[in-house]
Amino acid sequence: MKVPLPLVAVAVLVYFAERGTTTDKKNSADFRALCHAYALYEARDSITAGTPPETAANVLQIIEDYNTSTASDTWYANKDGTMKNPTGEPDANAQTAWDKHKQSLLEKETNGKKIYERLKMTTTRAAANAKIQKALQRAKNINEALGDAATAYLADIDSIKSKLTSAVFGKETATIDATAATGNWGARCSHNGGGTGLTISSSLALAITCLCSEKAGSVDNCGVGSGSQWEDDSNNYGEAVKRLWTALQAKCNTYTRPALINPNTIYAAIAGVMARMGKGNTHAAPTKTNVIGETSDSSCDGSTGKLCLDYETALGSAAGGIKWINDLQEAATLINNATETAIEAKRLQQLMDLERQRAEDAYTEALHTEHQAQTTTTVKIENKALNQQQAQKDCDKHHASQENCTKAQCNYDANAADGKKCKPKAEAETTAVGTGDGETLNAEVKSALKNRMRIQIQ
Predict the structure, then answer these.
(1) Residue pair 390/410 in contact by the 8 Å Cβ criterion
(2) Would you list the domain boundaries of the chain?
(3) What is the pLDDT of residues 16-35, one digit of tens each?
């Protein structure tokens, strides 16, 4: 049973292709294919799965600050009395920090323009704050989701590295366990692994060691530059495997490793290994097709002519496959998961920015309304003051004639103490627009007019 591989793996398989040489030994190509799978472990810190998610605390703070600028007066003063110490008393330190924060907001500027101007108590401010509160709550939920995404992403990255480690060493420890790799080649490197411990199916490191270390003689079957011999009774404590693997690992590390780890590079490495199945079998009528390495009769016994890896049973319909390949495939799936998490986090960050924009729009609209109301009031005051001045000039012309004074729509006071008998009619009091503090427009007009008259008299 062949391991199913994506078509893209075949397309990028060229990455792992290395030219053979005239000095290649019989298992050299197989060794290189397994080394390329091992290289995935060595490149585990170069996993490509999108931009790591992170919370948007800075954006959340901006929305919080807009909320502060539009909050009710009691909340603005002391957060409605919610700042308490463990004894239930008002927390003076928290209050001091809060006051400093509010002051810092009032001082923030961009190109001379205040960013967080405190709005006056109006229905416009209250309406803006209601909108900002909703944006703030949504932003908090989004930020929490971003935190979950960041946690999930890092967990996937850790799991990917664990799977790559497990694929090589059969365990999530970055070294071959000599105590789990004891015994002779015939038992340890057989298709069932001799019962317990590491097997050629559970550990890529052991598979490479078995492929390149014969029981007798000193033939350099994998072209590593020296004889790798696994004599019977030389590995009672796993010492031979540990020594042999160290040399083979060093040789594997001379080959090019991928600059980035993604599902394509993983599946390409797996495809490279699967492509070697049966290539070294010179049996005229092979009884096994899932064998990697040299054999003349489809069997593997560790001798010079039968130094191979028998995966026929592992890839049978009743088996679970080659475990270290399964680990690599799971690593590829985890990379896809992490990538999807990164993509979702990017979408959440965009939503977060949208909530910031909503809060900013609500604040800006309220600020504009407040400024517009203040400008309208000022213009009305100025106009009223000018009208009163003109009326005074018109009435001043008729102090000598009650009839003419009346015709000029002025009030005539024959007993005026200042001798100015013809005076403008008083304006009716009108509530000022946009002040929100109970003052009247007429009072402001009188004040402005009084100041102007004082200037004229002087």
Answers:
(1) no
(2) 22-376, 385-423
(3) 444 444 344 689 999 999 99
